[in-house]
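idk why but the lab printer keeps eating my pages so im just putting this in chat instead. protein + iron/sulfur cluster:
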Amino acid sequence: MIEELVNACVRCGLCLPSCPTYLETLTETSGPRGRISLIADVESGRLDLLSPGFTEQMSQCLDCRACEAACPSGVRYGRLVEEMRARIERARAHTRPPMRRRLRELLLRRLFASGRLMRGAATVLRAAQRTRTQNLGAALLGLGDVAALAPEIPDRFFVANDQRHAVAGAAGTAFLHVGCVMSVAFARVHEASIRMLNRARLNVVVPRDQGCCGAIAIHAGEPSISRALMQRNIAAFERSGADVYVVNAAGCGASLKEAGHLFPDDPAWSERAQRFASRVRDITEVLDAMELDPQIGRIDAVATYQEPCHLVHAQRVSAAPRRLLAQIPGLELREMNESAVCCGSAGIYNVTEPVMAKRLQERKIANTAATGATIVVTANPGCALQVQAGLRAAGSLATVKHIVEVLDDAYANYGTTIHRQP
Ligand code: SF4
Ligand code: SF4
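predcted complex ->
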């Protein structure tokens, strides 16, 4: 498979200006064409899989897939980098110290897979955040700056509990994907999503037998964990009888839409996964396709839209969010420069590559500030955290909101007006 994917690249270089790490370094090896050459060298045996130059580049790549969207030859770069990361992980597994091996296993296989464990860990983190001891705890566990990058844990979680939110004259039923981090850090986004789906005349179901999409495991080079998590979601959707599987986190949506690629050696699961993937939609696609309740209020403010990589590049969804924002009376949408260049979040990238993540964050904040917007709208939790942290560090008072929160605010404001001054 690798050889076929590598050979699709004709070395034209048209992808280079879209690559964030190339834009920052202007170095061929830190761009997609250079990385594809390195992969070809590894595949042919000219370069060792674990050579520092190669592993560094596989780690420095954001897997943002901007190159894939720009490539006229249809090179599936995301699959290349994910396959190479999986091989690196397999080769490194036995050299990792036992403590780190267990911690990694615990995080990827147990923590993200279990809503109960996730809520337990989030409760501990929340207590540490309230007593400002999270950095000490992370240092004791050898996790460096991880705690500083963790989301602020709110008072309440969102628990998938077989809820049904019915609406009169419903046009169909939506399955709401709750996810792992979203469920403990972004309950308000799920609540706003349910209200918005109801306003689009869709019943909403939230089955308890769903779970993490497995994107973090696949980005960490652990496809077997990802497959097990995906199977759970596929089965939960099939049991639910819903018409559409709705996702409000772009990274999860991209993974779930690509479920069909996860089971190349299992025809039965491959068929189920493909059927499932064809029903997965980002929430902006769903709301954009439906007729929304016309009783929408005003938001008199300037907003800018930060495109999540896994929505614009991996799912190719770009116009729907803008059309939805254009429906809000009073809201002025000012486009930022490089709105589709990664903000440096990219899953756990700001933990594994903190230097490049910071450079990209600062680049994004400069582009955001130049618009004069007081609301930065996005559609992915990682982007929201990364941009909000960058704004705070720069002393900006602008707020970051998920697009469904902005829409929900506008509806809540029907009959009144929200003003936001710079
Ligand atoms: S990945 Fe695509 S755009 Fe980039 S050099 Fe290869 S063929 Fe050209
Ligand atoms: S996935 Fe993103 S960071 Fe990686 S080579 Fe492509 S454009 Fe560059």
